[in-house]
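Input chain follows. Return structure tokens only.
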Amino acid sequence: QVQLAESGGGSVQPGGSLRLSCTASGYTNDYYSMAWFHQAPGKEREGVAAIDNRGAPRYLDSVKGRFTISKDNAANTLYLQMNSLKPEDTGMYYCAVDRHGFRRLFSVDYEDWGQGTQVTVSS
């Protein structure tokens, strides 16, 4: 079973930056895709960025140009660099693994989830 552990969340002012990390263990399949999901208070979980085994990314339109997803295969770590943060980016951020490698932003595709890390953007 895949274990995922997110870190890097915190509180920042609008316009600030954060870098989230997700360390994965318990699997070695290079065909998996991974993604970051955002859940704002009182709202559904929403995929913001995904990356496939070749490193090709996919982004939600609202984060394009501000967020960058990347991964270090040797370290089994997924990253999300978040720049120009806005108050609406506030919420929990979860990393997830899609064992079929679809690289889509639909939560139903993802079988394994971390516990999440909190991001708060406020002045």
